[in-house]
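Morning run. Coffee first, then this:
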Amino acid sequence: MENAILIGGIGFDHIYSTPRATFGLIQLYDGVPSIPAIIGLLAISEAIILAQKTRASGQEKLHGEYNDSLSETRDGIVTTLKNWITLIRSALIGYFVGIVPGAGASIGSFVSYQQALNLDPENRDSYGKGNPRGIIASEAANNGLCAGSIIPMIKDALKETPLSLLASCWSPLAKWKDNKDKDHGGHLLKEHYPDHAEYMAKFVEGYRALGLPVVAMTIQNEPAATQTWESCLYSPEEEAEMALLLKKRLPDTKIYIWDHNRDIMLDRVNGSLSVPNAKEAIYGVAYHWYDGDKNAEIAKVKEAYPDLHILFTEGCVELLNLNKDDPSSAIGTFENGRRYAENYIRDLNYGSEGFLDWNLLLDMNGGPNRVGNYCEAPILTDGESLHPTYSYYFIKHLSSFLRPGAKVMEVEAPEGILAVAGKNQEGSLALVLLNLKEGRNLSLSIGAWKGKIPLGKNEIVSIELEGVDLW
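And here it is:
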């Protein structure tokens, strides 16, 4: 009883507006959800029993024994096929749960597991103790969820505008890693490089079979970072080794390396491209912006490898970095939007070819996020309506005027003005200007065309001209 009262007291006091037993963790401000707390308390006794067995036998391991022998793999396939009704039913449950807005993988897995339990009353006691039907039910629903949520959303988007998709792996299967964990870094075991390459290739081919144009992929998201979420560590040479395997398996797919911050991008590229034949397999280098102001590193890569394609594949405003005590107060500010414009304009001029934002849509708190790593999205929702942020409008200035295929041109701009220009494929000229200083009247000269525009402090202006002689 005392433990329940203690857990229930964690969180933000709604009467006195003070945090209680949060230990400085923003994630505890909303308190401890009852269901995870109950599950955790039930697991403590089992953990103690397991620890006692481990000490007694000296043979069992906390992470379990992973045996990838052919016979066990065959037995697993046979067991799954024998329970094909459970497999199909659970996959359909996951699919329809995925269609429901706001529902996630956990709901689909719980519903499917409970359904399997209800339909197998004779074996109820074996559920939760390794009954294969329970395992098949929850996992099939989890996998079926994607077909009911993500895939239909992408197909709807393709009806509105042409899209090219880039896939990014965050972790190999846990059993193929040295730490036996999809989270917390670890390394892909050398003997499983071919297995992982085949796994990723099957993913790409599966999406393509559904009409989803996956044209590019990265080897690994943030391969130099050990994260509390899905992560895996690769050296530059190991990335090149994986790129060679993937290129052989998916010869028509554009393979990007790195997929991490700009600050050490050149060192990573040097290491990967030093591997024999890697240049033929690696199409480009992907990068993120969580490094402050290291935009100029892009120019160094472009100068060293002019034929290498450079693509921004992740960036967001990390709210906890702006205000750890009250992250929601840092969301939707003008400064967040300006950060997008500054980075996009500088990076384009240094040699970047395009930008993928990290989140399309989040709730009003910058979530959900299973590890509390809240961030801003260009569009937020309260569940009933959409709320564009300044980031949305700053991005729109560039994406609406500098359209896919635009050729970036050199611009001479006065101090305090960030400018990027590009010639669109249909022949028009687009110019985006961001004024970082006091308001002014700016004179423009583009080929034979001349003009003046007023530009206020922190104002962004986009111009598109047609029929102008640019050369």
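The chain has 15 helices and 18 strands. Good start to the day.
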